[in-house]
Structure formats: structure tokens, C-alpha cells
Amino acid sequence: MAPGLDDARIALSLVAIEPGLKGVLIAGPPGTGKSMLARAARALWPSGTPFVEVPLSVTMDRLVGGLDLERTLAAGRPVVAPGLLAQAHGGVLYVDEINLLAPETANVLHHALAAGHARLEREGLSATFPAEFVLIGTFNPAEGPVAPALLDRVAFLVPARPLTAAADRAEVALAAHHPYTFPPDVIHMVAVGREVLSYVRPPRNTLKELCAAATALQVPSNRAEVFAVRCAMANTALNARVPITQGDIDLAVRLVLAPRATHHLEIAKDGATHQPAEAPPARERTDSRSTETAKRDPGQVAHPASSQANQSPAAPDEHAPAPLGLLREPLQAAGGTSAGKRGRGLNLRRGRHIRSLPGRPGRGQVALVDTLKAAALSSAVRTDEPTPPDAERQPGVATPLVQIQRDDIRLKQFRQRTGLLIIFAVDASGSMALNRINTAKAAAISLLQSAYVHRDKIGLISFRGTRAEVILSPGGGVAKARRALEELPTGGRTPLSAALAEAYRMAGEKACRLQLAGTVLVLITDARSNQPLRALPDGGDRRALAHEEVERLAQQLRSRLAAAVVIDTRRIFVAGGSGQQLAQWLGGRYVYLPKVDASQLTTAVRGEMGRLR
Asked: At what angle do helices 6-17 and 223-238 cross, to 10 degrees?
């Protein structure tokens, strides 16, 4: 296995020793081997330990439990069947692309991790199943973050780094046709570590040092230091030792505390923590990095845990610099947009039950009443068929009045109100300030209030100077948006390309995680882009470079939008001007409002959103 997964191998080994660590989440781009490593981790647990894989399309009755139809009909009373959570009791629950789970599914998973059991309360059924398990999840951060509640409930969030060195690439290519397996010596060390763990006791100075590191790193959750202590104990047991060494403490800081850090910290060779000379701004999230791991204990057995610190994974940062890589992507074909409508929210999993359809058990929730009706209507036809010799009636066994066959099964179809993601991008540059920015703020607030009537998610981006800033993430309240807009500073250049790049990221990450029907961009600007993302070459034309970036980014963003409205606020209308060009590149509607009248703007945007509902 390539070195880009060293931290993941360590974390899987530790959680196989100490189930109290709860789980491992492996973050990385596609093709890094994270899913293959996660499935190979089955060998770290004793033979016969449950290893249950949860698909993204899992239904709630399959996950938590539901009515066992066959046993219910045979017994004449409701019989409950346990779900995947109960099946994973005492073992491992694996979820690939865990960041794409439906919100209600992630909530159930989070509560089961916290409570140690799965509770079924639905459709007149009530049952509780034990569900103590270790969670292993893999995901691509570019497709959206993992639910914060899940991140807080597991000890490890580790990276799967892509490999760039030619030697590492050659190693991966040679091993492509051979599935990865954990080395036998590592499996043996994990088995021994389970026996040694009960003898490991953390000294008081270890607890103080880990808690001090959590405080210095400004880790928000108090669960982090509990996980850090258990991580140090598990690494001690993994190496067949009883006393905890400085190397165990440093590993716990690097794997458990550093990914949760909201403040920069350096770890010296002696394990002491030092504050940097200048702390970064509070709104910038930075990860702690170990400058050098502690020297290996002389009695320590060789294991990946002693490898050098790798780059920590990170949840997507909403305030990170705009993705310059978009400027190098090929242009999308100028076809239709990815429009979505509420009417397309028909599914077999969640929402409001509207009808029942024929289907196979396991693909959705069984509509028991409709299934019995279908079986009763077709039973007359089946009773005329000859009875096979081996199906003769046995003495003392009652023949059911209604016999249910596969063709009689009916599944519930639901309609889900998925809503829209509405991204407001407000130009706060100096030229926009001349065109009555205060009126634009009032119009944006009016649109925010009307959008919440339909349960839409709202994102708000302001751009001025050299960058764009997310001042309201999707899901924030109207009051928060009002305060942010009222305090919005103005002045400087117009970094329109930065705003489009930020909208591109929001339309991808947030819309995917929230599972919305579509994304609408409302861009309030005079479209006078004069600040590029890239550095200006010697003798280059700043406005020309900014214009080129806006064209490329707008056409890239178009593929992620269901609709777009460009509100041109410049004082003098220019036919074929930059505002009309921008609307054309985005595939959206152009509205010229020199006075930025709130009622006119609201009417224009509501018309676009009404077309999608």
C-alpha cells in the first residue's frame, strides 16, 4: 500500500484495539485507495466479527429495523426484524462516501454511535436493538463535508493523500491487480494489543499534557481529549508496552487533536507545545502540524505508527482561497443546465407518502395495507390453480386466507420537499457603492425572507477588494444575514472572478450535502470586473485577465446552476455590455435595474424560482 495512507493504517489498527475510539473517517480524492484499505481492515478484527457495509440508498427500515412481513403473516402478530445497525453490533459498520448520506440517515447513525443501541419507533412498532460498533467511513472532501455530529463522535479524521513521486506511482501500478491485505505481523500486533490494553494506565501527567494541548489548539469539543487519551493508550498496547511514552502522546495530538484544531500550534521534539509568534485570524481554520515526531522508544516494535507525520486531513474550509484550479479546467459544453424541480422529489425513502407502487422488498418501505389488498384481489385467481403434490395441507396447520407472493408487494412512494439553494452574490466594490449599495442590501434581505417561506437554503457572498467572502452559509437565519448585510463594508476593486469561484464551490459542496433540487444564483453587480484571481504577469492587462477569468468561471459555474439572475446596477445602460455577457455565459436572465428597486428585483428573482418549483 502506498505511503499516502500511513495515518489511515495507524488509525484502523488503533480502533481495532480500542473500540472506545468509535471510528475512523478517511478523507481523500478518488483513486487514493481509501475504500480498498477500509475493506481490508476486516482482517484486523477476529474471525466472525460482523463487518456490515451500508449503501448510500439505504432505507430507514433497513438501517434501524422494520416489520418482518413473512414472519408476521406466519405468526399472526407483528414481528420486528433488526436492521443493519443491530447486525453490526460488536463489530464494524462501513459507509463509503459517508458525506453523501441523507441528513436523517446521518442523524440515526450519530445517535446509535452515542447511545450504543438502535431504537425503532415507527408505524406502530417499538423495539430497541443493541448496536455497539466501530464506524469506518470514506469520503471525498470535494463532494462535501461529513455531518459535524459524526465528526465529533469518532476519534480519527485522517487523510488519503494522492501520490506524486514516480517511485510511489510505480509501486501502485505494480500492485494494481493484487488486493491489499494487512501484513500478518500487523494483524498479530493488533491481537496482542487487545490483551495488553487492559494493563495500560495513563499517568496523571499524560492526562494533563493532552488536555493542555487540546486547550492550546482551541479544540471546541471535550470529547477530543477523551479520544486522545484512548489513542495514546491504544498505541502503547499496539507496541506491546505498558508505560505511555512521549511518542504515544505526540501521536494522539497529531491524529486526534490536530484535525480538530482552530488555532495553530507547533509541537517540539520534547513534546512541549509553543504558541506561534503571530496567531492567524480567528476566522481562518488552520491545522496543527508536527514539526518532527518523537524518537521511537528503544523497546518499541516496528510499525507504521512510528512513521513520519503526514499532512492532516481537513474538512472543506468555507473561507479558504478560491479554487484557482477551476481556471485550468476545460470549458463545459454550452448545453442545458442541471435544473431541478420539486416535482422531481419522488422517491422510495422519505417525504410525504403519496401512493404505492409495485416493487421488490428491500428497495423501499413496504406498504402493508396495499400489499394485502393486492394479494387478496389476486388470491381468487391463484386458488383455481392446481396444488402441487408437495404442498398438501398438513394436519393441524392452518392455511392462510391470503397468500402473498412477490408480485403482490407494494412499496410506498414519497414526495420530498427538497427546496432550492439560492446563492446571493452582492458586489460591495467602490463602483457599486456609488450605485446605492444600501438599496441592494434591502432587496437582498427581502428576497431572503421570501425564500424561507418555501424552506429554501440561502447562501450569501460579498466581494470587494481582492477576494470574495462567505458571510452566510446555506442554512443560516435571516436575522444573521440582515446583520451581515448591514455591517457589510464597501470600497475597492471588483473581484468578480473570485465571487464566481466561491459560488461554484458552494453550489457543488452544499447542494450535494443538502440534497437540494437545484441551485439559483442571484448576482447583484455592475459587472465591471477589474481584479483577477491569478497574479498579473509583467506588462499584463489587469482588466483583460479579469475578463478572461470571468468568462471561463461563469461557463464552468453554469453546469451547476438550475437558474441564474444577473442584476445589472450600473447607472447607464450599454447594449451588449459586460452584464449581458455575464448573463449569457451563466445561461441566466439579465435584469437592468439602475435604481435597484427592491420590489422589481424581488419580482424578477421570484419568477425564476417559480419556474423551478
From this structure: 90
Decide if 280 contacts 286 (C-beta within 8 A): yes
Closest listed residue to residue 473, CA positions, set 144, 188, 175, 156: 144
The residue type found at 299 is G
Rg (CA), the chain: 29
Cell numbers that stand for 373 in this block: 389488498
CA–CA distance, 453 with 1 (Å, rounded to integer): 52
Q: Which three cell numbers stand for residue 489?
A: 463594508
Q: At what angle do helices 6-17 and 184-197 cross, to 10 degrees?
A: 40
Q: Are strands 156-159 and 23-27 parallel, antiparallel or unpaired?
A: parallel
Under 8 Å between Cβ of 138 and 30: no
Task: Look at residue 519 in the predicted model and tell me its pLDDT.
Answer: 85
CB 393 within 8 A of CB 331: no
Q: Is 41 helix (H, G, I), strand (E, B) or coil?
A: helix
Q: Which residues are paired to 411 by β-bridges?
A: 357, 366
In this structure, which amino acid lies at residue 497? S
Instruction: Say if residues 29 and 140 touch (Cβ distance below 8 Å).
Output: yes
**CB 94 within 8 Å of CB 51:** yes
Reduced 3-state DSSP string for 419-432 = CCEEEEEEECCHHH
**Superfamily the domain 421-612 falls into:** von Willebrand factor, type A domain (3.40.50.410)
DSSP at 309: P
DSSP 3-state assignment of 600? helix
CA distances from 332 to 335, 488, 511 (A): 8, 34, 19
Averaged confidence pLDDT in the chain: 76
How far is CA 167 from its chain centroid? 32
Q: Which residue spans within 473-540 are E strands per DSSP?
A: 519-525
Sign for the CA dihedral angle at 538, 541, 546, 548 comes to negative
Q: Taking the domains of the chain in order of start, what are their residue ranges?
A: 347-384+401-415, 421-612
Q: Are 495 and 527 spatial neighbours (Cβ–Cβ below 8 Å)? A: no
DSSP for 3-16, please give it.
GGGHHHHHHHHHHH
d(CA 101, CA 103): 6
Q: Which helix (H) or strand (E) holds 136?
A: strand 134-139
Instruction: Locate 416 and state its grid cell.
Output: 420530498
Which residues, at least 6 apart from 516, have a Cβ–Cβ distance to it below 8 Å?
Answer: 340, 418, 419, 420, 421, 457
Q: What are the tens digits of pLDDT across the range 305-355?
A: 333 333 333 333 433 444 444 454 433 333 333 444 444 466 676 666 677
C-alpha cell belonging to residue 307: 512513521
For residues 583, 587, 590 and 596, what is the CA-based torsion angle, rounded to 10 degrees?
-80
Query: Is the CB of residue 219 less than 8 Å from the CB of residue 260?
Result: yes
Query: 83 in the Ramachandran plot: left (φ > 0), alpha (ψ -120 to 50) or beta?
Result: beta
pLDDT in tens, 349-393: 666 667 788 888 777 788 877 787 777 777 655 555 555 555 455
Q: Which residues contact 599 (CB under 8 A, 6 or more apart)?
A: none
